[in-house]
Write a sequence for this structure.
């Protein structure tokens, strides 16, 4: 099989956080948030990163975006190493690489309407000059694409539901037609019914525009409905990696099995002997 | 039905709020019971009124909120009771575990101070006994190294650990009834599973639990019965197994289908419910779910369906066209 060039490669990345204040006279305590983690996302592919709180999954997203500096390893974009210190390169990369965060209210400016929020992203990320009419058209079509009715464009975040806010965040992130969208627990704070809508929306956008996804979640069942491949992180290390079928059909690692067992499914499990029910 | 009064009996509870835009009804005629050693789950989306139902039971509605109807705890009327009467029941009779452990714990007090404060304030224990009770409560919710935890502050604990401390705080007064409002929503699935196990153990010990959640997956293995709420009303109530196996209300079936699963076709789209629930204050004619319901007909848009009570152990459903067969549910 001739492997095409992956869109994103993370190679043996390590991130170390310093805990506490000074390093002298007592040695500074450090925490390895990531150690030797390697993953890759093919062009148009969907990779799920799963693990518990503190497993390093958000740190990995931050390294890819250049929000956290890795002390070891490197990140390659279309085969070329990314120099996060190079501002010109970073600006170009931001057009192709976007993120949606967990908290839909926290990631929007409370003083901007939905339309203004999307317009801000349009002007910041899309380089070519455009008329106001053209900008308005692009904003409308971005809102429409994420399933928001036109009349919602004039609403402020506090006038929108959690699911609607998250759609605005997705419209902002996708208006520059990025090649890769990083979703850091993007559906975890939503009601189950709204979560299903947003998962389907992300899948539609990914398929329609051949946009790759790096989807971070603690819920394996959500990842299963969205991704092709899964990487399981535990305490900063990659413990298992594989396709959906392999991870769900025959998980090798006990940690993966434990994560699977914890998924809340609406099926009746056999109760213990202490149950008051017959 | 068991003998004697239910641990919690809610009858025809209505909750209204006076706002600048007029009166908004959050809960519309809810009747619900919880027995000793039973866990009942109230499941609904944001804005369905489930949290206001719980706050009304505890007498904790906001200033502009009014509740009518009856809330009886072990035969004692709580609706309209004085603050003093309510305080006599709070903590030792009924307790609350809320969603966000960071806001239910006081950031500048050590865990020990927060755990024992309720006991000491009411003279329920001497300081030495209170400390002993605090240690027991922490052990009870499976917190490792409880002695060390007593000296710590909330920010030194992980989210899951904080929620365990909040649970210990709710249980330290040995309540008979525990209200849990989305107790695991802010947590990872693995931490969530462990908290749910602990709650199941508490229930098996005889404590009645009323749990509020938006996720039907959460109530599996914990709830004995489930009441599904939509736009302020209970639209279906059934034993958990029955509800999962054979949902009668189209809304229940849609909520079940929206939960992502570990089995079945992974490439299938998740079933989602088109549209949004009515905003509180919107006056609905007929069934509130009708605009989103694929089975709605003329009658659904005209008459509000009442909750038809089935025989004991059966489902009660408020729907003109309930799902009756496997084929209809598919």
């Amino acid at each position: 099989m001739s492997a095409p060039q992956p869109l994103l490669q993370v190679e043996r990345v390590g991130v170390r956080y310093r805990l506490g204040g000074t390093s002298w006279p007592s040695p500074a305590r450090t925490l390895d948030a990531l150690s030797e983690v390697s993953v890759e996302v093919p062009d148009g592919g969907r990779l799920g990163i799963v693990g518990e709180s503190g497993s390093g999954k958000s740190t990995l997203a931050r390294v890819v975006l250049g929000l956290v500096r890795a002390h070891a390893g490197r990140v390659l974009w279309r085969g070329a190493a990314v120099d996060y210190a190079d501002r010109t390169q970073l600006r170009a990369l931001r057009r192709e690489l976007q993120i949606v965060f967990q908290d839909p209210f926290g990631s929007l400016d409370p003083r901007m309407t939905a339309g203004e929020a999307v317009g801000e992203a349009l002007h910041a990320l899309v380089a070519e000059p455009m008329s106001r009419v053209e900008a308005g058209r692009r904003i409308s079509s971005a809102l429409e694409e994420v399933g928001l009715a036109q009349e919602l464009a004039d609403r402020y975040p506090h006038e929108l539901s959690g699911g609607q806010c998250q759609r605005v965040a997705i419209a902002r992130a996708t208006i520059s037609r990025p090649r890769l969208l990083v979703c850091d627990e993007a559906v975890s704070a939503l009601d189950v019914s709204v979560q299903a809508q947003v998962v389907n929306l992300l899948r539609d956008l990914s398929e329609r525009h051949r946009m790759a996804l790096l989807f971070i979640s603690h819920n394996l069942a959500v990842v299963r409905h969205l991704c092709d491949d899964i990487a399981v992180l535990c305490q900063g290390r990659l413990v298992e990696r594989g396709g959906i079928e392999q991870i769900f059909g025959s998980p090798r690692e006990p940690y993966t099995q434990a994560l699977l067992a914890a998924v809340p499914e609406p099926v009746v499990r056999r109760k213990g002997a202490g149950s008051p029910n017959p | 039905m068991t003998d004697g009064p239910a641990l919690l009996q809610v009858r025809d509870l209505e909750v209204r709020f006076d706002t600048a835009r007029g009166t908004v009804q959050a809960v519309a005629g809810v009747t619900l019971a919880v027995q000793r050693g039973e866990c009942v789950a109230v499941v609904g989306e944001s804005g369905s009124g489930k949290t206001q139902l719980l706050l009304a039971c505890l007498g904790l509605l906001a200033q502009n909120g009014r509740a009518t109807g009856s809330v009886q705890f072990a035969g004692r009327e709580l609706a309209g009771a004085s603050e003093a009467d309510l305080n006599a029941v709070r903590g030792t009779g009924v307790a609350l575990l809320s969603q966000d452990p960071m806001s239910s714990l006081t950031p500048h007090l050590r865990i020990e101070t927060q755990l024992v404060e309720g006991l000491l304030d009411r003279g329920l224990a001497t300081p030495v006994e209170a400390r002993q009770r605090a240690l027991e409560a922490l052990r009870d919710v499976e917190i490792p190294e409880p002695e060390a935890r007593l000296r710590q502050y909330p920010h030194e604990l992980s989210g899951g650990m904080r929620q365990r401390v909040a649970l210990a705080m709710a249980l330290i007064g040995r309540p008979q009834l525990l209200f849990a409002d989305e107790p695991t929503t802010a947590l990872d699935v693995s931490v969530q599973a462990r908290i749910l196990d602990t709650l199941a153990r508490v229930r098996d010990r005889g404590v009645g639990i009323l749990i509020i959640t938006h996720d039907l997956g959460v109530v599996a293995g914990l709830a004995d019965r489930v009441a599904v709420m939509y736009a302020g009303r209970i639209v279906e109530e059934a034993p958990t197994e029955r509800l999962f196996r054979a949902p009668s209300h189209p809304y229940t079936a849609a909520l079940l289908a929206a939960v992502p699963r570990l089995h079945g076709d992974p490439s299938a789209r998740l079933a989602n419910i088109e549209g949004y629930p009515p905003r509180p204050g919107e006056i609905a004619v007929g069934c509130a779910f009708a605009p989103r319901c694929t089975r709605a007909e003329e009658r659904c848009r005209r008459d509000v369906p009442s909750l038809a009570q089935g025989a004991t152990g059966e489902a009660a459903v408020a729907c003109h066209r309930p799902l009756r067969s496997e084929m209809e549910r598919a």
Remarks:
- The first helix of chain B runs from residue 50 to 57.
- Chain B has a mean pLDDT of 90.
